[in-house]
Fold this sequence. Notes:
Helix content is 49%, strand content 11%. The protein is mainly alpha-helical. The longest helix is centred in the middle third of the chain and has 13 residues, at 51-63.
Amino acid sequence: MTNIIDKCLEAGLRITNQRRIIIELIDSADDHPDVDTIYRRAIDIDDTISLATIYRTVSLLEQADLIEKIEVGDGKARYELARGHHEHLVDI
């Protein structure tokens, strides 16, 4: 997790407590969560986090190339840390 925080700081992003929670949730996810899933998990940790904060943070992280958007055909954008190219299997 420290690595992604360091990358955020290098990209000029402030690391607020809410951003740290969001980054930690994406980093530790066994799945590829969408924004709603990240939000549900985040409010279990800090119920002051708004859905708008999740959207803004995900957008900032994506623009800084720190997370990647994944489209799996279900109409929801899902996210994971940017770790270089790798394949995703989708059960259809």
